[in-house]
Specification:
The complex is a heterodimer. By secondary structure, chain A is an alpha/beta fold. Chain A contains six helices and seven strands; from the N terminus they run ααβαβββααβαββ. Helices cover 39% and strands 21% of the residues of chain A. In chain A, α4 runs parallel beside α6. Chain A is globular, with a radius of gyration of 15 Å. Chain A starts with a helix and ends with a strand. Chain B is an alpha+beta fold. In chain B, a hairpin with a 5-residue loop joins β3 and β4. The radius of gyration of chain B is 13 Å and the shape is globular. The chains are: A alpha/beta, B alpha+beta. The interface between A and B is medium-sized, with 27 and 26 residues.
Chain lengths: 155, 116
């Protein structure tokens, strides 16, 4: 199954196969499992988010980058396609705009934001993320900061 | 090399996402325009998978956000992004236009004619 996920197949087919993998894990009570043998290795900022998810019992699968270079979601979380974005700069508007394109361009309506190193004040960043969801440009955004962990929308 | 993938323009009138999409389509006739997912948004796609998505700014509705994507190598991608930037900057002489890279650092900017 892992090999098939790695092939250049439509996103819907990727989702179907990840769902089957998750069903297998569910039936066998496998939780908190990270599988990054399929896709590209996660970087440090992405790992920080994934570690939180694993500690909560989520199963995470890293997805392969398509050979065409087309944008693809980073991961599947319990068989839901998701993207991890890291904020390191101070401009909330630019960061929000970057997220606003993820659903239409990469097919992932669920976004995790690593804001641990962000220079954007927490209230400004959270307001911007709330707007992205309110405008239906993402279904769900979870923001993990140094001393806060907030979510908007519905998983 | 940082990859340029986002242009944010300053305050513009309602409907400018569509107008800018038309201008970019004229400059790049190989592109095809499709409706964006959100109201007023427009997406231009190229046969080689380049794409430009124009939409109302999320945080400030008076701005236009332009997202640029391609599978080209960084050097070619950035040269193309600079061309898109020029089309937008030329169309909006009274508006500040900025081209960012993937880290949200400004690659190049064009200040508004009427703004210091």
């Amino acid at each position: 199954m892992r090999l098939r996920i790695k092939q250049d197949i439509p996103l819907g087919a990727v989702l179907e196969r990840v769902a089957r993998l998750q069903a297998y894990r569910f039936e066998n009570r496998i939780v908190g499992r990270l599988d990054e043998r399929v896709g590209r290795p996660l970087d440090g900022d992405e790992h920080a988010v994934v570690e939180v998810l694993l500690s909560e019992g989520r199963n995470v699968t890293s997805l392969a980058v398509k050979r065409t270079g087309a944008a693809t979601p980073d991961i599947a979380v319990d068989a839901v396609l998701a993207e991890i974005k890291t904020s390191t700069k101070a401009n909330a508007a630019n960061f929000a705009q970057r997220l606003a394109d993820v659903w239409s361009e990469q097919g992932a309506a669920h976004i995790y934001v690593n804001a641990i190193r962000s220079q954007i004040p927490a209230d400004a960043l959270l307001s911007a993320m709330e707007l992205v969801v309110a405008e239906n440009r993402a279904k769900y955004i979870r923001v993990i900061g140094r001393d806060y962990d907030e979510m908007f929308g519905r998983w | 090399m940082a990859r340029a993938d986002l242009i944010m323009t300053g305050q513009v009138a309602v409907g400018y996402a569509e107008r800018l999409a038309d201008l970019i389509a004229q400059r790049f006739p190989q592109s095809a325009s499709i409706d964006g997912q959100t109201a007023g948004a427009r997406t231009l796609v190229w046969p080689d998978r380049r794409r430009v998505h124009l939409s109302r700014g999320v945080v400030n509705a008076g701005t236009v956000g332009v997202n640029i994507g391609s599978s080209m190598p960084d050097t070619r991608h950035n040269a193309w992004a600079a061309d898109v930037f020029s089309v937008i900057a030329d169309a909006l002489p009274d508006v500040r236009v900025e081209l960012f890279d993937e880290n949200d650092d400004v690659v190049t900017e064009r200040s508004a004619r009427s703004v210091a």
